[in-house]
Each structure stands twice: as C-alpha cells, then as structure tokens.
Amino acid sequence: MGTDPDVMEVIGNHGVHLAVRKDHGYAPPSWPRPDDASQAHLRILVSQADMDEAEREAIGLGARPLDTKNNGGRRDVRLYADPAGHSFALVVSRAATTPGA
Predict the structure, then answer these.
(1) Contacts of 43 (CB under 8 A, 6+ apart)
(2) Residue among 38, 49, 52 at smallest CA distance from 88
(3) CB-based contact 31:19 (threshold 8 Å)
(4) Total-model pTM
(5) 76 Cβ partners below 8 Å, 6+ apart?
(6) Low-confidence ranges of the chain (pLDDT < 50)
(7) C-beta separation of 95 from 11 below 8 A
C-alpha cells in the first residue's frame, strides 16, 4: 500500500485497519448476476505475528480456505470464502508489522 495511489488505508486508534482498492475494471452490477461476478473483495490487515491466530478465528467462524496448494512456510496473503461464498483475504499489514507503528 504506502505509495499505491489506488489504495486507501484507514487505521483506527485501536489497531483496526480498513483498506480499499480502486477497481479500474469496475462494472455496475447486472441482474441476473453471473455466478463468478465479484463486486467487492475484503482485505483484513493483520500483523505477521497475528496471522495464524487470525486464520484460526476466520475458519472457526465458517471461512473456507481458497489457497491451500502452497501452505508451506510464511504466507503474507491468505485467501478465503465466507459461508455464502464471498471472497476475502487476510493480509500482513506492513504498518502493523513495523515496531512503533
């Protein structure tokens, strides 16, 4: 994020991060919506130290991992689907990882 002009990140007082990325290929929704249409993608930013716990919590709440073919070693982005099939990602936040941030 940092210098990416298409990303806006809001950081709350208690470590809550919300990031929004501009979609240059955005198309307004149509009906009926194609099964593979995506109107929003949520990126939940966490520190590297909290990534495994965040994953356990997401799965405990019903998330289904989507990127299971490369589970070895450290991963800074982990993709999931919620119980209704909407995609989201847990992403290591560089701001949350930097000491004093």
Answers:
(1) 19, 21, 88, 89, 91
(2) 38
(3) no
(4) 0.58
(5) 48, 51, 91, 92
(6) 97-98, 100-101
(7) yes
